[in-house]
Amino acid sequence: VGSGPAPPRLPGSLVRSGGFVGGRWVQAAAAFPVLDPASGAELGRVADCGVAEARAAVRAAWEAGPGWSAERSALLRKWYNLMMENKDDLAKIITAENGKPLKEAQGEILYSASFLEWFAEEARRIYGVIIPPSVKDRRLLVLKQPVGVAAVITPWNFPSAMITRKVGAALAAGCTVVVKPAEDTPLSALALGELANQAGIPAGVYNVVPCSQQQTPAVGEALCTDPLVAKISFTGSTATGKILLHHAAGTVKRVSMELGGHAPFIVFDSADVDRAVAGALASKYRNSGQTCVCTNRFLVQKRIHDAFVEKFARAIERELHVGNGFDEGTTQGPLINEKAVGKVERHISDAVSQGASIVTGGKRHSFGKNFFEPTLLSNVTTNMLCTQEETFGPLAPVIKFDTEAEAVAIANSANVGLAGYFYSQDPAQIWRVAEQLEVGIVGVNEGLVSSVECPFGGVKQSGLGREGSKYGIDEYLEIKYVCFGGL
Ligand code: NAD
Q: Which residue windows are coiled coil (predicted)?
């Protein structure tokens, strides 16, 4: 267990231990512990909601649907204002339950709140269409209407933003929601419930059913098969996404899936090496490598390779500081749990056993059992585990390549495609590669690309649908064609 400070005191006014169903805080038959990933200490216990609570939440959402309409832009705006007024406390809750450095948690709260602000405005722009008729006595209209109750299942790596990115769009569209947060990070979801309540969002519009890992499969199945649920929106691993798709098929629900990535980061010979190193650092090590758009494999062209590896290693050693997320100066908090640490270790030992070299890092960090040294590997090849699946940790493997075609082929060999990055100063190459990469999001000479105004989502097995931007609300709207005849 870590040698860092005792578990942080949580801001009591926003910490809730019950589920939030139909506007009331509810207890369940049992409770499950929420742990501080930095120390292993228990932060508190939260109601372990089961199938009964999930069904009750769905019913509450369904009953709240018809009354949820006119005021929604103003109420989303109030919810946004309350998030901003409480931003420091909300960030502390994230750092406590997720471990990320407080600065990153504060950044997540601003990002998270921005979805409520954005969709408060989008709620006012759900325009229909009038279609010119080909028959004289007809008038043809397209209406957009909310799909109905949305079940929202979210991961632990962005405990707040992955909720508002979905819920902001859903509520703006006129849907009501049931949120099942990740078992590691339910407190942020419940704090949002407290603020939704204070904002005056009506009972049943935003419901939260936290549950333990043991209850999760049953609760997930209940949400994805309930006939009152019209839409499933999920962010998490591709493996879980496939289970949920399977459940949702029985009642042909609408689905949005934000799944795993395996982002390539290509550095071409023409790149500005210092910019590439800065982008690499940001895109690889944010949230200790635990974001779905984090670079998972570096592809570096032959001539620039040695300079890039050398400068990247020095930058890692100089700029990254492992420690408790609450400590000033920490850039690398703990991984979420020991299983995550085990995966990083497995990827490194597999690579080293096949000839990769450790340039820096390579082992668990002395700060505590969930901490890992930021690691850089060179001499990496495409048959190693770390270049075949998402590591989701602070490991940067570097593959050396010769030609552009070879790099694009390696990048596109993955069966997922969320984000991809490349550095080049050749405009023709920039257009070519941006168009050829099989991903939903491309960073050109840029390592941090997410923003509320831009569409977020992947291709291939990285998912279905887009979040944020002017497109995000469409995931929660049905198109209805109305034909007026006999006019
Ligand atoms: P995960 O799939 O294990 O868990 C995500 C959520 O699904 C959690 O709430 C979990 O409790 C729930 N869940 C797990 N099994 C379930 C089941 N059988 N039925 C219902 N719910 C179930 O993923 P994770 O480890 O928490 O998150 C990491 C993954 O998420 C990575 O693959 C990452 O790339 C991906 N991710 C994707 C995006 C994106 O926008 N594409 C964003 C963040 C994370």
A: none
